[in-house]
Amino acid sequence: MNLRRENDILEETLSLAEEGYAAAYRFLLEKYEQHPGDFGPQALYFLACLAGGDGHGSLALKWLDKSIRENGWWYRPEVLEDDDLASLNDNPAFRALKALSDGRYAKAVSQSKAIFSWKGKKSDQLFLAVHGNTQNGQVAREDWQPLLDPAWQLETIQSAEPDGYGTYRWSYDMTSYLPVAEAIEKVQDAGYEKLVCGGFSAGCDMLLRAIALSPARCDALVLQSPWIPMLENHARELIDALRRKDIRVKIRCGSEDGDCLPMAEQLHELLQKAGIPVELVIQPGNRHQFPQAEELR
Questions:
Q1: Taking Cα atoms as reference points, which of 213, 265, 262 lies closest to residue 235?
Q2: Quick one: how far is CA 42 from the chain centroid?
Q3: In whole angstroms, how far apart are CA 128 and each of 201, 204, 207?
Q4: Is 32 within 8 Å of 47 (Cβ atoms)?
């Protein structure tokens, strides 16, 4: 399974789906058939939703059966309540698959805990990476590693909240960000010359909450495709914390990321007006994803 490759292809699929489900389904099916080992639960879920949304309920059920019964995967309960799957709600086979998935999810929640990969100081420069929703610590490592100079020690913080089989998520509340804050606090006095934290999507919100609402501090934040609802209620705390802790902010967002680009621009304007050192880079042609090549300095 190659989650980074899968995520990029699913972003292309979403773009095609805006014009019509049938073309998006054919595109994703072709990619899946070429390299099925690269794809996990998300791709099969997309195939099911595209099929169901296009009026092919039996085909949607086939993909869910392959994912849940055959492959042993599972999803958050609400994910299988999607409108594109509504035609299956009264289907006994679908209900049985959902019950099986829900049971696996409940078991995963009861056993899950946050994971911080850091075991000790290995370099003078430390980069802490926080994944987005439907991702995990390994995806965060694969996303950030190509953008960093080899001199940096890269470590990851993984959420305790399962999203689906093998992936995790962050909730926008007053507790989900705590593992991020605790991880930063654990290393901030470990003797690093530079400590930089980077987040993708929901991971950006967790980093900003950690900075605004806890003693956690670092030298800089790098926010890729930031989804940051915390600005609604905690903008003042964030500005005060960034100023007090002397933290620089770098914001990166795709020009085609219709959901996150407005938030990126809002944060940039807010910090500029407050006199916080901030940089915004809009990545041409990118949707909700990392750029193919861009080195961080």
A1: 213
A2: 13
A3: 15, 12, 10
A4: yes
Answer whether 220's CB lies under 8 Å from 250's CB: yes
DSSP state of 135: B
**Among residues 208, 213, 250, 243, which one has the least CA distance to residue 229?**
208
Helix pair angle (202-213, 231-245), 10° resolution: 60
Q: What is the pLDDT of residue 296?
A: 58
- Segment 26-71, tens digit of pLDDT: 999 999 999 999 899 999 999 999 999 999 999 999 999 999 999 9
Are residues 132 and 143 in contact, defined by beta-carbon separation less than 8 angstroms?
A: no
Burial zone of 48 (CB within 10 Å; 0-12 exposed, 13-18 middle, 19+ buried)? buried
pLDDT at residue 7, rounded to an integer = 86
Q: What is the dihedral of CA 138, 171, 39, 86, to 10 degrees?
A: 170
User: Is 280:248 a contact under the CB 8 Å cutoff?
Assistant: no
Burial string for 198-233 (b: 16+ CB within 10 Å, else e) reads: bbbbbbbbbbbbbbbbbebbbbbbbbbbbbbebbee
Please tell me the pTM assigned to this model. 0.94
